[in-house]
Amino acid sequence: MPKKVQTRMKPEDRERQLIEVAQRMFIERGYQGTAMEDIAQAAGITRPVVYKLFGNKDGIYLACLNKAREVLNSYIIEYAMKGQGLEGRLKGGIEGYFSFVENERDTFRFLYDSGAAVAGPAAEAASKLRFDTVARIALLIQDLKNVVSDEEIIATAHALSGAGEQLAKWWLTQAGVPKAKVVNTMFNLLWAGLGQHKR
Hints:
This protein has 199 residues and is mainly alpha-helical. It contains nine helices and no strands. It has a domain of 133 residues: Tetracycline Repressor, domain 2 (Orthogonal Bundle), CATH 1.10.357.10.
């Protein structure tokens, strides 16, 4: 049987390919169920190439996580910036989040379902990335800074992040529920809670 010839790629192209392959495998098998050898075989290369680019499994997992968070954050910010004032930015950011869920389902699954068994430095880095998303959400409600404390703004951002994740997981099990409905549900819940501070 002829030996499989590896296709040469530029390092940045190979890295992008491996991130795509690894993310798919982490979704299918979870963090613990995915080995570097599996990723290498799926990409049609040798294991040393994966180690050279990412160091170890934590390295490639975190590269996948960074990429996924970038995609999520870009959706939130892009949609939020289309809105005017606190109300417009909030509703836009929520619409951006659920547009991400709708259009990037595999990436959503990777972010919220694949890393349950991650521990140590990788878990710490993953937590920092999640907090970065929360910090971006907090920026959307900075109009409240003159009437509530910074801690309350951050707490509200964390609550919004957690509620959005759970609502998204429910939504993905409900065929036929339009995105506009979940966006309005999420927005109305938050807007009512901010009632005494609205401008």
